Amino acid sequence: MARDTVRKSLDLNKENVDWYYEMFPGGSLSGILDQLLQSYREVVDVSPKDYAKIAAEQLADQLRK
């Protein structure tokens, strides 16, 4: 089954990219980024808006103490 792909321009830290290619010569940077994003999706279930609400509630609780 063919996967849909998206072409996207990214700004990455040069030091991190250089490290990756030193550690994995000929490695697929897009492949590792795709795997990382997939793993991130599996563990993150809260949206940025939800995170902001949680942080605001925690800050309000701390200020009340």
Attribute tags:
65 residues, 0% strand, mainly alpha
Characterization of the model:
With 65 residues, the protein is mainly alpha-helical. It has one domain (14-64). 65% of the residues lie in helices and 0% in strands. The chain is built from three helices and no strands. The longest helix has 17 residues, at 48-64. It is elongated and about 55 Å long. The protein starts with 13 loop residues before the first helix and ends with a helix.
Oligomeric status of the shown chains? single chain
Low-confidence residue ranges: none
Q: How many discrete structural domains?
A: 1
β-sheet strand percentage:
under 5%
Total helical segments? 3
Distance between the termini: 56 Å
CA-based shape = elongated
Share of residues in helices? 55-70%
Q: What is the structural class?
A: mainly alpha
The H-and-E topology, N to C, reads as HHH
The biggest sheet amounts to: none
Average residue-wise pLDDT: 93
How many β-strand runs?
A: 0
Measured on Cα atoms, how large is the radius of gyration? Answer: 18 Å
Helices and strands in order:
Blueprint: H1 14-23, H2 29-43, H3 48-64
Q: Can you summarize this structure?
A:
The chain has three helices and no strands.
